Amino acid sequence: MVRELYQRLREYFNNLPEPTEEEKQFIRELNAGYFPITSVHRNDLEGQGFDVKKISDDDMRNLAEKMADDYCEQLFWPSMEVIAGEILGFPKVKTKDIICPKCNSENIRYDIHESRFHCGDCSLAWDDKLYVLVEFPEESAPFEEQGTGYPAWESGDNGALYVPEEDYIRHTGKSPERDKCYRAVCWPDSQKYMGTKGCEPIQDENGMRDFGTSAYWVPLLLTEEAAERRMDKKKAPVCPECGGTDIDILSDEGVAVCNDCCLEWPYAED
Questions:
Q1: Are 144 and 190 in contact (CB under 8 A)?
Q2: 132: alpha, beta or left, given left = phi > 0 and alpha = psi -120 to 50?
Q3: In whole angstroms, what is the distance from residue 245 CA to residue 233 CA?
Q4: Which residues contact 40 (CB under 8 A, 6 or more apart)?
Q5: What is the mean pLDDT of the chain?
Q6: pTM of the full predicted structure?
Q7: Cα–Cα dist 157/169, whole Å
Q8: Distances (CA, A) of 238 to 108, 160, 227, 256
């Protein structure tokens, strides 16, 4: 029923002859590529013996949120994998040699919302765009011998390197400390970090080739603080999927993210 209503709404607004700006925004959200899975109705509760006369709309919304959370945590990914792959035969993109750096499993999925890889066997998660500062010579020597990483010239230790998180985990068998993690921030985003304590300009030949000139090594914790400052909850819209209002607006990315059902959709502030 929810899917039918969603489709009728989409058709109705897409066929408006002269939509207002607010309606145009709603149309963009409706056409963002999200498809509802199911819903819960009072009839469902009544069928299980619940007294629906004593259950309010707020109670129903709370139930729906809890059920959605439970489903996402336990069944969403394996259910989608089995139905899309084994039953419907959806094609997959052939990933190039992506294996878990800890257990070598090929049972890997990529979470587009987190921008991280997840191993289905050992539960390791890693970011292929994250780098680890390895400072002590005895720790950085193996990476230097392999030609892995970029020099950290502003470090107090000779031979210090920024190495990919994946290679760090493969060598050490563990995830890095967050305060040792960095991102390579390219121009023009790097402008805001110029002259900031703890940020290092990328000046080696390989680094400038891979990330461009005027790029910076920026501590992960600092980039996360900047991301949090971009999140504006004052003008939070209503989630088109679950009706939730706990919304983060990522202005730089032009998207809104629902913290209740994890839906992400294009959003332009007024």
A1: no
A2: beta
A3: 9
A4: 60, 63, 64, 67
A5: 86
A6: 0.54
A7: 21
A8: 33, 48, 21, 10
